[in-house]
Amino acid sequence: MNKLNALIRSVIGMLVLSFFTLIVFVSVLGENHRINFLVTNFFDDLKNGDYNQLCPLLDLPANGSDECMDQLFFLELSMLSRFKLLEKEDYTLVITRDHFWIPFLTSDRVKIGIAMTDKKKNMFEEWMARFESNDRIEGFMSVERRGGQWVIEKIRFNEPALATSIDEMKNSVDVNRYIVKTEKGYALQPNEINFKALTTAEKRLFEYSLRKISGQNSQNKN
Fold it and tell me: What does pLDDT average to over the chain?
């Protein structure tokens, strides 16, 4: 009888321990997924031109200058070009981390790698895309855990492959082609616009310029 009771206690103890371990694992897994949500939200804001959310992440002037907005515009444009998605309306992100975060055991700073691919139809295709992309930008950004929350610490514009891509895009697309910044706002450039002759990058620049004029890219937007 004593042996039976000991066996029952051992089984119950193992079940409790297993349940506790499962809870901890699910919690840690959830915190790692929050990193992905943070990165996805960054690109959602970038895609929507909601630069007021993103400019504080850049060490650039926030008021009275287009430098931040232009940098974010060229960031998206160069990445879409790099992954051959300029002609696409949407895409799927492929997010990688340099390590799986475990509290007290691993660093609270995680480096993020990014790739883009054609829009996937479901979660399985998104998962499989991780094994298809070999052209990801390693160390694109770093995130850090502060006060129990994940925050974007830095966007690594100086990452060689990314910096080269952005510079090439800036040289091929004149950001002042349609409008120029003035003391009171913007002045339209005297250009005739032939939409049929515009490249995809130029069309995106035209749309971006219109958003500037309308204030939709404003960093002071409420």
Answer: 84
